[in-house]
């Protein structure tokens, strides 16, 4: 364990924070550095594959091959998901889990260029950086495995290959299948435009595809014989938009029409709309979702159509764990942020010039570790890590794999993720997660405190029930 007085002395006299690392920690960190190019080669392959949720066969197989080659025991196809897997090393407790994602987002592509330049060889892109997420987490798990092995320590490190985070809720099915039941703590990270390890929540989320069925007819010659499924969709959307005035201000409801007909002169007999409903509290997500369903039922009644819906995914809000968050923040502070070389600085300036607020981005913040915060009420996005955090104490961080000012789900995020900027951020994450796991193996009292904190937050009568019910994984939701 690091000496707190030395930490203070090094900080006061301005010596590099890496000087605070013990010899064991230095060995682990240097091991990740030595293999950084190889790990980025794996990440770049996944970046090139750009496979969407539940279709990540090559990406999943590549990470399985990497981990199996390092001595992990791989179990593929877990939770009835072909691309989900676990990779385990060691025996006994404690059991520390590391999450790894690898799905891309559909409909957005980009080369590793600071100028808008779409790829024509794929129809998806890693606009959320999950190619780095999966590989960086694997690098951390391998580093911890080597440390356990070299020091003949008892304990288990387990990597979770978790597909379809983007709307497919892969982790929810893995939680529901009991794959985290024996785990003492879970570590994860996410690409970002800055460096932080806050104990922060997120929005709970539930989604569904609403499908309307009507009667086809000639739109000009015999409109009286038709019943437009598209009218059903549009009537539903109109009612939901009026509903927005009467939900809690933190609620978010958004949709996209995925099928609206084929030709203006043919009354469509089928139409579909895809909805997301979000709120910081999962109970209110469920309640608001039922109100959206009522809108759909009313729309079908009013347009003479019929309707059914399929719940696609549901995710709990993240439960922040302050005990683990403080440990991870300290490790991130020691590792530090991302320092650009001259070529990376030029790339970052090129990316920043494409922002709507061009000139306002402070590129120097890529090297800064933000102060630790506790954020109980979620905002922004959602993640299926939320369900994991209700099952086991969970902690995460974000690192600057993107140029400061970059939005997730943007072409600028894809671009930076394909360069050494993405690599450096991934390495920062891998080192921080590895050091955090080592602390948890060496200090069982941290795990006890983290579990007590989880139990206090979720209550003694908590029973896990997935928001998506008992449905099977929607393996075709991206088709």
UniProtKB/TrEMBL annotation:
GO terms for cellular component: cytoplasm. The keyword Zinc does not apply. Pfam families: M20_dimer, Peptidase_M20. One of its GO terms (biological process) is folic acid catabolic process. This is Aminobenzoyl-glutamate utilization protein B. Residues 206-297 form the Peptidase M20 dimerisation domain. NCBIfam families: amidohydrolases (TIGR01891). Keywords: Hydrolase, Signal. One of its GO terms (molecular function) is dipeptidase activity. Residues 1-21 form the signal peptide. It comes from Neolewinella xylanilytica. InterPro entries: Amidohydrolase, Aminobenzoyl-glu_utiliz_pB, Bact_exopeptidase_dim_dom, Peptidase_M20, Peptidase_M20/M20A_hydrolases, Peptidase_M20_dimer.
């Amino acid at each position: 364990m690091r000496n707190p007085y030395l930490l203070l002395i090094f900080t006061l006299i301005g010596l590099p924070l890496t000087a605070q690392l013990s010899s064991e920690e230095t060995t682990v960190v240097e091991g990740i550095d030595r293999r950084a190019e190889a790990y980025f080669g794996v990440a770049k392959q996944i970046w090139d594959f750009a496979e969407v949720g539940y279709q990540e066969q090559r990406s999943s197989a590549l990470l399985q091959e990497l981990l199996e080659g390092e001595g992990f025991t791989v179990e593929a196809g877990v939770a009835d998901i072909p691309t989900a897997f676990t990779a385990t090393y060691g025996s006994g407790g404690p059991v520390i889990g590391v999450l790894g994602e690898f799905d891309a987002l559909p409909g957005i592509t980009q080369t590793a260029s600071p100028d808008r330049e779409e790829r024509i060889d794929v129809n998806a892109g890693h606009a959320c950086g999950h190619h780095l997420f999966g590989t960086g987490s694997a690098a951390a798990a391998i580093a911890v495995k080597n440390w356990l092995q070299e020091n003949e320590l008892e304990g288990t490190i387990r990597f979770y290959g978790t597909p379809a985070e983007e709307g497919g809720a892969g982790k929810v099915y893995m939680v529901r299948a009991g794959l985290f039941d024996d785990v003492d703590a879970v570590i994860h990270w996410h690409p970002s435009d800055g460096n932080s390890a806050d104990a922060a929540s997120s929005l709970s989320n539930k989604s569904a595809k609403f499908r309307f069925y009507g009667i086809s007819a000639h739109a000009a010659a015999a409109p009286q014989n038709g019943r437009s499924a598209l009218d059903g969709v549009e009537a539903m959307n109109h009612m939901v938009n009026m509903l927005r005035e009467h939900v809690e201000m933190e609620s978010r409801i958004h949709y996209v029409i995925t099928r609206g007909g084929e030709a203006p002169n043919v009354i469509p007999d089928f139409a579909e709309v895809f909805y997301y409903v979000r709120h910081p509290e999962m109970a209110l997500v469920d309640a608001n979702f039922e109100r959206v369903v009522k809108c759909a039922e009313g729309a079908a009644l009013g347009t003479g159509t019929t309707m059914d819906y399929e719940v696609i995914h549901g995710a709990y809000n993240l439960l922040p764990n302050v005990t683990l968050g403080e440990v991870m923040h300290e490790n991130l502070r020691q590792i530090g942020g991302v320092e650009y070389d001259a070529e990376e600085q030029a790339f970052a300036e090129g990316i920043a010039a494409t922002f709507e607020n061009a000139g306002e981005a402070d590129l120097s913040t890529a090297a800064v570790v933000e102060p630790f915060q506790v954020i109980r009420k979620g905002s922004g996005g959602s993640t299926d890590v939320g369900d994991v955090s209700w099952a086991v104490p969970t902690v995460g961080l974000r690192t600057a794999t993107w140029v400061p000012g970059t939005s997730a789900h943007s072409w600028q995020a894809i671009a930076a993720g394909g360069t050494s900027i993405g690599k450096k951020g991934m390495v920062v994450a891998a080192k921080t997660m590895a050091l955090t796991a080592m602390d948890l193996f060496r200090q069982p009292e941290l795990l006890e405190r983290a579990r007590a904190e989880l139990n206090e937050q979720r209550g003694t009568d908590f029973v896990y029930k997935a928001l998506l019910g008992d449905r099977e994984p929607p393996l075709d939701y991206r088709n």
